[in-house]
Amino acid sequence: MKILVLNSGSSSLKFQLFLKEDLSVLASGLVEQIGDTQSGAELTFNDSSGLKKNFSRKHSIADHRDAIQVMYEMLEESGTLVSTGELAGIGHRVVHGGESFHLPVRIDAHVIAAIEELIPLAPLHNPANLTGIRVTMEHAPKTPQVAVFDTAFHQSIPEHAYLYALPYSLYEKQKVRRYGFHGTSHGYVARQAAGHLKRHIEDLHIVTLHLGNGASAAAIRGGECIDTSMGMTPLEGLVMGTRSGDLDPAILFYLNREIHMGMDELDALLNKESGLKGICGENDMRSISVAAEQGDRQARLALGIFCYRLKKYIGAYMAALGGADCIVFTGGIGENSAIVRELSCQGLERLGISLDRKKNTIRQKEILEIHSADSLINILVIPTDEEHEIASQTLGVITSS
């Protein structure tokens, strides 16, 4: 039997197929630019079963329903999934679970209705997640389906950390509070860190840094999150690819008053035109790092701002935790950018954080230790695997129900 994991985004569909017995990967794929009628969607498929049916191609895909149909066709063509009858379960990434979901749950009509009610909190993501759920339920009506929520891991954050200093009625009536995201990744790498250090996670204080186009930090004590940088939406916190992260909220009033920017324009400004892109015109850290090394001033500035904000969050979360045993870098940037890791840890020696520059340049798929011999705090690079974590949680739900 097999476990299928879906991550249905606003214009993309990412999937992985696992063998139930050991959760080894049989196949994976990505459909991007769904609904692009001009250039068409990008399809990528990778077969890990030994059949070697790997390919990348263009295809006209109108919507997520078409994308899921193509996914099944690719899996069938490769021989990795002959029919949905081979599936023991299907796990879905759902971005926003609000306060309703602290754990992964088997999907039924009540769960679907609850995810629908949370659409105002995640208008770009939850509708796409729901589409993935509904279409796969049509294709495999007898297969157990499980929702795994990005926000669930952060539901352990205490009230004093998740509430904003706004009228309390806004929390009571509109549920305005910190929710946090990337929870599946933060939880996964924290457990991986504990295993690597041969320590019980209940005894550890860990700062996890998920750094990609979207970026967030988390403070984890005893395996539970006590704070995270993203807030009610994924806009708050660290500098990101196109998102501003933290800023003075009065800037919005100023821009509205002085240059008459409307709500939609401000939304687009902060979410799509800010962050690294806003500073240097580029949101890919690889390109920014090369340009910075070649002396490009704006690229250097973008890199410096990104790492300075990250450094502040490391210090803040060490204070919130009362000290840290371990700092973990993960995500596309966290796993691959030596310069980001170096600049983010630079100058933190008095906090017990000392990075080994030579170790930091090593590239490997396994867990990498990059702290120096005299560092009081472990610094680890841990590849995240959200799909594997979703598969594991899906298996746990279907075997316990």
TrEMBL record:
- Record GO biological process: acetate metabolic process; acetyl-CoA biosynthetic process
Q: Which SUPFAM superfamilies match?
A: Actin-like ATPase domain
Which EC numbers characterise this protein's activity in its record? Answer: 2.7.2.1
**Record's subcellular location:** Cytoplasm
- Can you quote the record's cofactor note? Mg(2+). Can also accept Mn(2+).
Q: Which residues bind Mg(2+)?
A: 7, 386
Residues that hold substrate according to the record: 93
> What GO terms are given for molecular function?
acetate kinase activity; ATP binding; magnesium ion binding
Provide the residue positions that the database annotates as binding ATP: 14, 210-214, 284-286, 332-336
* Site feature Transition state stabilizer, where: 182, 243
Q: Which residues cross the membrane?
A: none
Mind listing the UniProt keywords for this protein, alphabetically? ATP-binding, Cytoplasm, Kinase, Magnesium, Metal-binding, Nucleotide-binding, Transferase
User: Which cofactors does this protein require?
Assistant: Mg(2+); Mn(2+)
| Pathway connected to this protein | Metabolic intermediate biosynthesis; acetyl-CoA biosynthesis; acetyl-CoA from acetate: step 1/2
Annotated active site residues, numbered on this chain, are: 150
Q: Which family does it belong to?
A: Belongs to the acetokinase family.
Q: How does it assemble?
A: Homodimer.
Q: What's the protein name?
A: Acetate kinase
What organism does this protein naturally occur in?
A: Desulfocapsa sulfexigens (strain DSM 10523 / SB164P1)
